[in-house]
C-alpha cells in the first residue's frame, strides 16, 4: 500500500522546477551509476532542492548541503516526490 | 618542520624515529574531493613532497615527510574519492593502500559545510578498522553558510578524535597533529560507533558472512568483504569468486540475486548512521538564506551568461599569455638560447663541425626550445590553477556540458582540452580528471587538435608572409578550422568506434573561495617540472637524432639524409598540396617541436626569421601552397613530447598509432583540399 502512494507522486528529478524541493524515492539505473549517486548523497529518503533547471541540458540540485550537477540523462533516472 | 625521508636513516634509532620499530610513522590522508586535502598536504610536507604515480596506474601519488614533536612522519595522500566502493581506480587505490599498508593513522578530512556527505567516506573508513583522526575542515565556510558544528559533540558521538580546522589559514593543523600524536602513542583509543546496515538487510549480511567465513584472503577484514559483496563491488566479487568453493559461491550468488537492492540499503544505512551522529552536533541558526555561491552561480552557470563569462575569462587568459608570455619567450630565444648557441659556435670554431653542431643546434637548440616555452606555460598554469582553486572550473565544465555532448563527452573533458591551447602535453596529462576510460581516451586522442602556442607561433609568422593585411582573418579561420575538425572527429569517433556510449555526468560544484597561493604555487611548480622532465627526456634525444639526420653525411641540410627523404617524398607533397621538398622537410622537422618549421625553412632558404625569410617564402610559393602549408601544419601529427605523453597516458601503442595516422590523414587531406580549392577560386 505504502509503495503505491509513493509511486503515484513519483516524478523524474528532471521534471522538478527551479526552487522546488523533493525527497528521493528511487534510483532507476545500473549498479555503477547507482553506487556513484548513492555515495554522493542521493539515496532514497534524501532531501533534494532544485537549484537550476532550464528544461534542457544539465541541471544543478542541492543534496545534503552539496551542489551536484547532473546530466539530464542521469536526472531522468532519479525518481523523487515533491514536498511543499 | 620539514625533513626528507632520505636525509634520515630510519634504522639508526635516533631521536627522530617514529615508531618503536624505528620506521617513520605512516600516515594516510583521506578525504572526498574539494575538502582541502591538497592544502593540508602542502602545509604538512612543503617542498619535501614527492610526486609520482601509483604502481601500474596513471593516477598521481603524492607523499612527503615531516617531523612533529620529534617524530618522523611519512604522509601519503590518497586519491580524493566519495566512497571506497570500486567505482573507479582511485577508490580501489585508496582502500587497497589502507588494507595492505595498514597506516598507523588515517587522517580523514571532512568539509564542515557539507558535513553529512563528507562523513560518508568516514563511515566507509571506520569499517576498515583503522585508527582514525578526523580533521573538521572549513569551519569558517560552514559558519558563513549558516551551519554551526560542535566538534566535541561530534567527537563524543563518533568515538574518534575530531579537530576543527581552517587549513587555508593554517588554523588547527598543529592541533590535528597533536591528536595524531596521541593516537600513535596510544593515549587515545578510538572506539568508534560503527555504522549499521539497514535493519531489513542485517540477516542477509550475517548469512553472507557465514558463507565467506574462513575463505577471505588476508589482510582483508571479513565483515568488510561481506558488506562489499552485498554492495555488488566488482573487485571484491571477483576476488571471492576465485577464493570460495563452488557450492558456497553459488549460495552467495543466489543470496545476492535475491537482494539486488542491497547497495541502496547499505548506502542508506550509512546515511542514517551519519544522521544520528550529526544530529546533536550541528545547528543551523540561519537556515534558508541564499549564499554567495548560489548568487554567483545564477550568472556563472546560466546557459547564456555562463557561456559569455567563460568566453570573457578565456579571452583574458589568451590575452595575458600572449602579451606577457610571448615577449618573454622571444627574449629568452634571442638572448639566452641564441647567445648560448653563438658562444658554443664561437668557442668551438676550431673543433670539427659535428661537435659544435651537436652542442649548439642539436642539444642547446632543442633544450632551448623547451626553455622558451616555460614562461607561457607558467602563466597558463597559474591562471588555470586560480580558476580551479576558486571553484570556477567546475562551472566552466558545467556550461560546456551541452556542447561536449556532440562528441559523446561531458563537461569535464573541456578542462584538459582548454589546457591544450598552452601546450598539448599538459592537456593529455590533464585528462586524468575524467573518470570513464572511454571518455578519457577520446579526450586524449582529440587533444592534439587544439592549436598549441608553438603552432600559433608558426601561424603568426607565416600567415603575414602569404596573406599580408588579411593574416589576422586567416589565422582566426585556421584556429576555428582546427576546432571544427576536433568536434567533427570527436563526433565521428564516438559514433563509430565507441558506438555512441556516453559516460554519466555527475559533478560536484564546490563552494567558491579565495584562492590559496601556496597550493597554486606548488601546483604550477609541479606541473612545470613535470613538463620539463617528461619533455626533456624525449625531446632532447629525439631532437639530436633528427638533427643528426639533417646534417649527415656531409654537414649541410641540403645534402642530408633528411633532405633526401624529403626529396623522395616530394612527388606526394607536390601532388597533394603543391609542396616542394623544402616544405615537406619543414613539416617533418615540426615533429620534434612545432616551432622547428620556421627554423628549418630558415636554413633551407638561407635566411633568418628576423630578416628576409618571409620575403623569400612569398617569392618562392604561390598563395595556395602557403595556405595548404598552414592548414597542414596546424592539424599535423603532434610533437614528440605529446606522442610520448599519449603513449604513457593511454598505456597503448595501438591507440597512439591510431591517433598519429588519423592526424596524418586529416592534415594532408584538408591541406590538399585547401590547396586545390584555393587554386580553383584563383587565389
Q: Explain this structure to me?
A:
The complex is a heterodimer of chains A (84) and B (683). Chain A contains three helices and six strands. Chain A is an alpha+beta fold. Chain A has a single domain, classed as SH3 type barrels (Roll). In chain A, a hairpin with a 2-residue loop joins strand 4 and strand 5. Chain A starts with a helix and ends with a strand. The N terminus of chain A is likely disordered. By secondary structure, chain B is α/β, with parallel strands linked by helices. Chain B contains 28 helices and ten strands. A seven-stranded mixed β-sheet of chain B has the order 2-3-4-1-5-6-8, sandwiched between helices. A two-stranded antiparallel sheet of chain B has the order 7-9. In chain B, a hairpin with a 2-residue loop joins strand 3 and strand 4. In chain B, helix 3 crosses helix 11 and helix 19 packs across helix 20. At the A-B interface, helix 2 and strand 5 of A face helix 3, helix 11, helix 12, helix 15 and strand 10 of B.
Task: Order the strands across the largest sheet of chain A as they lie in space.
Answer: 1-6-2-3-4-5
Sequence stretches where pLDDT stays below 50 over 5 or more residues of chain A: 1-6
Shape of chain B: elongated
Number of helices of chain A: 3
Intertermini distance of chain A: 22 Å
- Give the percentage of residues in beta strands of chain B: 5-15%
Instruction: Please estimate the helix content of chain B.
Output: 55-70%
CATH superfamily of chain A: Ferrous iron transport protein A (FeoA)
H/E element string of chain A? HEEHEEEHE
- Distance from first to last alpha carbon of chain B: 68 Å
CATH architecture classification of chain A: Roll
Radius of gyration of chain B over alpha carbons? 29 Å
Major pleated sheet of chain A? 6 strands, antiparallel
| H/I helix tally of chain B | 28
Structural class of chain A: alpha+beta
Derived structural class of chain B: alpha/beta
CATH topology of chain A: SH3 type barrels
Q: Can you identify the CATH class of chain A? A: Mainly Beta
Amino acid at each position: 500500500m505504502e509503495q503505491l502512494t509513493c509511486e503515484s507522486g513519483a516524478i523524474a528529478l528532471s521534471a522538478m522546477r527551479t526552487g522546488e524541493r523533493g525527497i528521493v524515492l528511487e534510483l532507476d539505473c545500473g549498479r555503477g551509476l547507482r553506487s556513484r549517486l548513492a555515495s554522493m548523497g542521493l539515496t532514497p529518503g534524501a532531501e533534494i532542492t532544485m537549484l537550476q533547471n532550464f528544461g534542457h541540458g544539465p541541471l544543478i540540485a542541492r543534496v545534503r548541503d552539496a551542489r551536484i550537477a547532473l546530466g539530464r540523462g542521469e536526472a531522468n533516472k532519479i525518481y523523487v516526490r515533491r514536498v511543499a | 618542520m620539514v625533513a626528507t625521508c632520505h636525509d634520515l636513516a630510519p634504522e639508526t634509532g635516533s631521536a627522530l624515529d617514529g615508531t618503536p620499530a624505528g620506521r617513520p610513522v605512516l600516515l594516510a590522508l583521506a578525504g572526498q574531493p574539494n575538502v582541502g586535502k591538497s592544502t593540508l598536504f602542502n602545509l604538512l610536507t612543503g617542498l619535501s613532497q614527492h610526486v609520482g604515480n601509483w604502481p601500474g596506474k596513471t593516477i598521481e601519488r603524492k607523499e612527503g615527510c615531516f617531523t612533529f614533536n620529534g617524530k618522523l612522519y611519512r604522509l601519503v595522500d590518497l586519491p580524493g574519492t566519495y566512497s571506497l566502493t570500486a567505482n573507479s581506480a582511485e577508490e580501489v587505490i585508496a582502500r587497497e593502500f589502507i588494507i595492505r599498508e595498514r597506516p598507523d593513522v588515517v587522517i580523514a578530512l571532512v568539509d564542515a559545510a557539507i558535513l553529512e556527505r563528507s562523513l560518508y567516506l568516514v563511515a566507509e573508513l571506520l569499517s576498515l578498522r583503522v585508527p582514525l583522526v578526523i580533521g573538521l575542515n572549513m569551519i569558517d565556510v560552514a559558519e558563513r553558510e549558516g551551519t554551526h558544528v560542535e566538534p566535541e559533540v561530534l567527537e563524543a558521538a563518533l568515538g574518534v578524535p575530531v579537530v576543527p580546522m581552517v587549513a587555508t589559514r593554517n588554523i588547527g593543523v598543529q592541533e590535528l597533529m597533536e591528536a595524531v600524536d596521541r593516537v600513535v602513542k596510544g593515549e587515545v583509543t578510538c572506539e568508534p560507533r560503527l555504522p549499521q546496515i539497514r535493519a531489513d538487510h542485517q540477516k542477509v549480511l550475517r548469512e553472507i558472512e557465514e558463507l565467506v567465513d574462513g575463505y577471505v584472503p588476508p589482510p582483508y577484514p571479513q565483515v568488510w568483504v561481506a558488506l562489499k559483496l552485498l554492495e555488488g563491488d566488482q573487485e571484491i566479487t571477483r576476488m571471492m569468486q576465485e577464493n570460495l568453493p563452488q557450492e558456497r559461491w553459488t549460495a552467495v550468488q543466489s543470496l545476492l540475486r535475491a537482494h539486488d537492492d542491497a547497495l541502496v540499503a547499505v548506502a542508506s544505512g550509512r546515511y542514517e548512521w551519519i544522521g544520528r551522529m550529526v544530529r546533536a552536533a550541528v545547528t543551523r541558526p540561519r537556515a534558508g538564506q541564499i549564499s554567495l555561491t548560489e548568487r554567483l552561480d545564477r550568472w556563472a552557470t546560466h546557459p547564456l551568461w555562463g557561456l559569455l563569462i567563460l568566453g570573457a575569462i578565456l579571452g583574458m587568459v589568451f590575452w595575458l599569455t600572449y602579451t606577457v608570455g610571448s615577449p618573454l619567450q622571444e627574449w629568452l630565444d634571442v638572448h639566452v638560447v641564441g647567445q648560448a648557441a653563438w658562444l658554443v659556435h664561437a668557442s668551438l670554431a676550431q673543433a670539427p663541425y659535428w661537435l659544435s653542431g651537436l652542442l649548439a643546434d642539436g642539444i642547446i637548440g632543442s633544450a632551448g626550445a623547451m626553455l622558451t616555452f616555460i614562461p607561457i606555460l607558467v602563466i597558463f598554469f597559474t591562471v588555470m590553477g586560480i580558476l580551479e582553486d576558486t571553484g570556477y572550473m567546475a562551472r566552466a565544465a558545467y556550461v560546456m556540458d551541452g556542447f561536449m555532448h556532440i562528441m559523446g563527452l561531458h563537461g569535464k573533458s573541456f578542462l584538459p582540452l582548454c589546457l591544450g591551447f598552452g601546450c598539448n602535453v599538459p592537456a593529455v596529462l590533464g585528462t586524468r580528471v575524467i573518470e570513464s576510460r572511454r571518455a578519457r581516451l577520446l579526450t586524449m586522442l582529440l587533444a592534439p587538435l587544439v592549436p598549441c602556442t608553438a603552432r600559433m607561433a608558426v601561424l603568426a609568422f607565416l600567415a603575414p608572409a602569404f596573406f599580408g593585411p588579411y593574416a589576422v582573418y586567416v589565422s582566426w579561420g585556421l584556429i576555428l578550422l582546427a576546432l571544427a575538425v576536433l568536434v567533427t572527429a570527436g563526433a565521428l569517433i564516438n559514433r563509430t568506434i565507441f558506438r555512441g556510449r556516453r559516460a554519466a555526468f555527475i559533478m560536484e560544484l564546490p563552494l567558491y573561495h579565495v584562492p590559496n597561493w601556496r597550493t597554486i604555487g606548488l601546483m604550477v611548480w609541479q606541473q612545470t617540472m613535470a613538463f620539463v622532465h617528461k619533455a626533456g627526456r624525449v625531446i632532447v634525444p629525439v631532437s639530436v637524432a633528427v638533427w643528426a639526420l639533417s646534417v649527415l653525411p656531409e654537414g649541410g641540410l641540403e645534402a642530408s639524409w633528411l633532405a633526401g627523404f624529403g626529396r623522395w617524398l616530394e612527388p606526394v607533397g607536390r601532388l597533394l598540396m603543391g609542396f616542394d621538398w623544402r616544405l615537406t622537410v619543414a613539416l617533418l622537422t615540426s615533429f620534434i617541436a612545432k616551432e622547428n618549421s620556421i627554423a628549418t625553412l630558415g636554413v633551407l632558404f638561407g635566411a633568418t626569421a628576423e630578416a628576409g625569410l618571409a620575403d623569400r617564402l612569398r617569392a618562392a610559393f604561390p598563395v595556395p601552397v602557403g595556405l595548404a602549408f598552414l592548414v597542414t601544419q596546424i592539424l599535423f601529427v603532434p610533437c614528440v613530447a605529446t606522442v610520448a605523453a599519449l603513449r604513457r597516458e593511454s598505456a597503448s601503442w595501438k591507440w597512439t598509432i591510431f591517433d598519429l595516422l588519423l592526424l596524418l590523414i586529416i592534415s594532408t587531406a584538408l591541406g590538399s583540399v585547401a590547396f586545390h580549392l584555393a587554386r580553383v577560386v584563383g587565389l
